[in-house]
Write a structure and sequence with these properties.
The protein has three helices and nine strands. It has 143 residues and is α+β, with helices and mostly antiparallel strands. It has a single domain, classed as Pnp Oxidase, Chain A. A nine-stranded antiparallel beta sheet has the order 1-9-6-5-2-3-4-8-7. Strand 5 and strand 6 form a beta hairpin. It is globular and about 55 Å long.
């Protein structure tokens, strides 16, 4: 592979990971059930202690809901990449419905506006899930 272009990467420090997670808003949650995988883009809120996910609810039979129930260890990935610079963070752990109270004002404060896809606003509801930060790995390009 002598003609393949590449860049070097290294691990991020805890403060770098913390800064990126605090500044970010979106990523992809990877879930699994038996031999099936499911990934969904979600907004998140990180305050230095909790990693919370805003999950829309549309009905009781959603594919997303089934995978949330059956996944033992989930992986959330947030990243930014260009040709020469990049970073990525993987947060792995159990994902469970958060038991705290949250009202609409708090949802608006914690999360960016929700993207609506061909559904009536009145039919969309939200739950907040807590992703236990059992393993957090950050990588970035180096010069």
């Amino acid at each position: 592979m002598e003609h393949v272009e590449y860049v070097y990467t290294s691990g991020m420090t805890e403060p770098e990971v913390d800064d990126h997670l605090r500044a970010g808003e979106h990523g992809v949650l990877g879930l699994a059930s038996d031999n099936d995988a499911y990934a969904v883009p979600l907004s998140y809120h990180y305050d230095g202690e909790r990693f919370l996910l805003r999950v829309s609810e549309h009905d009781d039979e959603s594919e997303k809901g089934r995978f949330l129930e059956s996944t033992e260890t989930a992986t959330f990935v947030c990243y930014e990449a260009s040709t020469n610079e990049s970073w990525s963070i993987h947060v792995r752990g159990r994902v469970r419905e958060w038991e705290g109270d949250v009202d609409e004002a708090t949802l608006n404060d914690w999360f960016p506006p929700f993207r609506v896809f061909d559904e009536a606003i009145e039919s969309v509801d939200f739950s907040v899930y807590d992703l236990a930060m059992e393993a957090v790995i950050g990588r970035k390009t180096i010069e």
